[in-house]
Amino acid sequence: MKKIALTAVAVLGLGLAACQDNASDNATSTENTIETEAATDTNSALNATDNLGASADNALDAAGNAVSNAGNSIENASEDVANGQDNVAGQ
Question: Could you tell me the CA-to-CA distances from 59 to 15, 23, 52, 53, 72 in Å, in that order?
Fold first, then answer.
């Protein structure tokens, strides 16, 4: 019975020795995770801002192209009128 009791005490002692307090490691890991997530959120926000700027530039380019196209259409229409008048005068 003594051998069983000594064995049980030895096993329990080893079990307790294996349990270490790693709260500081866990806190450091949590802090690193929070910092990484914050950096990721910041980068995502900056990328979204950059994309908004590019989208605004594209929209302005499209508007400029539309105005230019309208001007070209008016120019073509006036040339068509002039050509029509020349054709009538030539008959």
Answer: 68, 53, 10, 10, 20
**Is residue 1 predicted with pLDDT exceeding 60?**
yes
CA distance 67 to 63: 6
How many other C-beta atoms can be found within 10 angstroms of the C-beta atom of residue 46? 10
User: Is the four-CA dihedral 50, 52, 58, 61 of positive or negative sign?
Assistant: negative
Distance of alpha carbon 44 from alpha carbon 48, whole angstroms = 6
Alpha carbons 25 and 39: distance in angstroms, whole number? 21
pTM of the predicted model over 0.70: no
Measured distance CA(91)–CA(83) in Å, rounded: 13
Domain positions in the chain are 55-86
CA 66 to CA 23: how far, in whole Å? 64
